[in-house]
C-alpha cells in the first residue's frame, strides 16, 4: 500500500485550477481538518499547471520554521539577502526576486499549512497576492490561529476561501480501491467511510490496521472487512493528539458519550456537570444535534469513541455502562430503541439478569437486521433461562449468520420442550428452514409436510403450510406451492406472518408466469402488513425482496430496482451484516447496471455480491450467474466461463426455481466465447423448458436473447397442425398479449423489425429502449439498423451512426454478438489508418507514421470508406465512435 493515486475531489480540483487560470487569476485557500486531503489537493493542482506558462513555487510551512524570519519561504528565496534593508525593503526585494525568476510567466505561489507561516513570510504572501501577475493558493487547518496577513487575503477580497468537506461515500470507495489495488464490497466501504468520517488520512490508517491483522480479506478479487477494528499505534497516537489532555471531569463526559451515544442532553446532564459538557463541546470533542424534539449528544468523530473505549479500564467500563442503563431505566424506555440500548448496556456491564428484556432486545436487533448484535442478545437470553423462545430465535439468527450446524444443535437441545402445537410448529418450521436452505437437504420438504399434518391447531398448521409452500416453490414444485399458498390465505386462523409468507410465494409465481399486475398487488399487500409480521418473522423480507426484485427485473423497471436498492432495508442489512439481504440487492443492482451498459459497475457489483455470498449457498449461484453476464457483456469470455463454472459449483439444488437466470447466463457465456450455434441451441431449449413450466415472464427475455443473436425468424417449439413451427418473432408476439407490462410488446416489435429487416422501425424501437434506460438493447437495435442502412446505401445511415456513437458513449466496455454483427470488419492496418485519418492527418503523414506508401494509404482509405459506409474523412470520426471498443488498446483484436 504505497502512495495512493488521487481519487475524487473533481469539483474542488477544478475550482482550484480555475482560480489560477481565470483572467483575473484570483487565488483560493481551502480550510479543513487534519488529514482531510488539503495538502494532496494542493499538490495535484500545482502538478497540473504547465511550467511554460506559470512560474510555480510550492511552500510547505511547518512548526520548525515558524519562529524564523522568512523561514516559511526558505524554499523560495535566495540564501543571501541584501544587508541594511528595512523590513519593507526586504519584502519589496523578495517580490522583485520572484518576478525576475518568473521571467514573464504568471507567478503561482502555493502555500500548504499557511497558518504555520512566520510573520514576515505571511506578509510576503500577502504582498505577492496584490501583484498583478501573481496568484496565491493554499491550505489552512481548522482550529488554528491564522496570521493576520493571511486572514486579510480574503477579507481584502484578494482570494476566495472555501471549506474542504469530508469525502463522499463514492470517493471513499474509490480511494479504498486505490489503496488496496482492488474493489471493496459496498458494505465494507460504507462502514469504513462512516468510521473515518470521510477523512482520507484516517481511512488509510484504518486500512493499514485492518490489513495488518487479517481483517481485510479478498474473495473473487473483492476486498471485505470483517468489521473488527484493530487500532494500530500510529492511529491511536493520531487520535490521542486530536483529543489532547483532558481533566478527569471532561474525560468522564467523553467516556459516557463514547459508551452511550446518541445520548440525550438531558440524560447526560443528570450524570455529569453541565459545565463539563460545555467544555467538551467547546473543544470539539462532542457535538449536540437535534433529533425531532430531543437534543442528542454524539462524539465529534467516530474514532474518538473507539479510542476512548479501548483506553477505558474494564472496571470503569462496566460501571459506566451500568450507570447508563440505570439512568435510562429511571426516566423510562420511551423510544423504540431504548429497550435495545438498555439491554446492551446491561449485557456489557454484567448486570443483565432479565431474560425477557434480553429476548425482547434480541428481537428488536433482528428486526433491524443487525445479525451480530441479535446473536449476542439471543444467546445471552438463552443462557439466562430464556428457554424455547430464546432457542428458537437464536437458531433462526444463526441460520442467517451462515452457521446452520450450530442452529440445529440449539434446536435439538430444546426438542423435548414442545408443549403445544404452536411451539411444535415454530420449532418445525425453523428447523426445516435451517435444514433446507442452510444444509441443502431437499428431503426436508417431505419431513416438514408429514410432521405438520400431525398438528391439530389450524393456526399452527397454517404456519407449517406456508413454509412448505415456499420450499416447494424453490424446489420447482410450483403447482403444489401455489395450492398450499392459497390454502394458507383461505384459513382465517392463519397468523399474519404465515399469510404474508404464503402471499410472497404466490407473488413470485405470478411474476415468473408473466402476471405482473397480480404480483404487484400481492407485493403491496405484504408491504402494507410489514408492521404486523416483522417482529414475528423479520426474514420474510427476503421472500418479499425476491418476489419484488424478480418482478422489477422481468418488467425492465430499472428505476424500480434503484429504489429498492436504496431503501431502508438495504441500509439496515448493510449496517447489520445481513448478508443474504445485501447480497441479493447487489445482484439486482448489477443487473440494472448491466442493462444500462455500465459494464464496470455491473462487474464490480456482481463480484461484490459473489464475495458477500461466498459462505451461503442460497443466492451464491445467482450472484455468479450475474457476474458471468457482466463479463460476457464486456466480451471477457474467460471470466464469463469461470463465473459460470462457479455458478454451477455453488448453486444449491434447493434453489431450482432460479434456473432461468443461470441458464440464460449460460447462453450469454457461450455466445461470448464465440460458440454462437451452441448459444442459439441452448437458448432455444431453455425457451421450450420455460414454456413447459409456464414461466412466460422469463420466456420473453430468453426469446429476446435469441432475437439479439439474429434468430428472430428461427423456428422453435412444437410443430403446429399444418406441419409448420412458430418462429421466435411469432412466439414473442403471442406472449406480448399474455405477459403484463410495456416491455413484452416492445420486445415483440423488436423481433418483428429484425425479421422484416425494417431499419426505420429498429431505430424507433431503439429510442423506446433508450427511454427505459435499456441502453445496451438500444445500441444493439441501432447497430442492426445501421447495418441494414449501410448495405442499402440509404441516406439515414449517417444519423443512425451518430445515434449509435452516442449510445455507446453512455456505456462502458460493451462487446456483444449483436454489436459485433453490425460492425464492419477492419484489419489491424485499416484500423490504424482510420484512426489517424480521423484526427485530420494527411495521407502523407499517415504513410510516414505507418511506414507505408501514400498510394497504399489511399487504397486503405477507400476500402475503409466502403466498409463503414461513409463518403470521406468528414464522417470518419463518427463512424469509428459507432464501433464498440473503438478506444481499445488493441483495436485489431477487437475488430478482427
UniProtKB/TrEMBL annotation:
<dbReference type="InterPro" id="IPR041664">
    <property type="entry name" value="AAA_16"/>
</dbReference>
<keyword id="KW-0547">Nucleotide-binding</keyword>
<dbReference type="Pfam" id="PF13191">
    <property type="entry name" value="AAA_16"/>
</dbReference>
<dbReference type="Pfam" id="PF00196">
    <property type="entry name" value="GerE"/>
</dbReference>
<dbReference type="InterPro" id="IPR027417">
    <property type="entry name" value="P-loop_NTPase"/>
</dbReference>
<dbReference type="InterPro" id="IPR036388">
    <property type="entry name" value="WH-like_DNA-bd_sf"/>
</dbReference>
<feature type="domain" description="HTH luxR-type">
    <location>
        <begin position="819"/>
        <end position="884"/>
    </location>
</feature>
<dbReference type="InterPro" id="IPR000792">
    <property type="entry name" value="Tscrpt_reg_LuxR_C"/>
</dbReference>
<protein>
    <submittedName>
        <fullName>AAA family ATPase</fullName>
    </submittedName>
</protein>
<dbReference type="InterPro" id="IPR016032">
    <property type="entry name" value="Sig_transdc_resp-reg_C-effctor"/>
</dbReference>
<keyword id="KW-0067">ATP-binding</keyword>
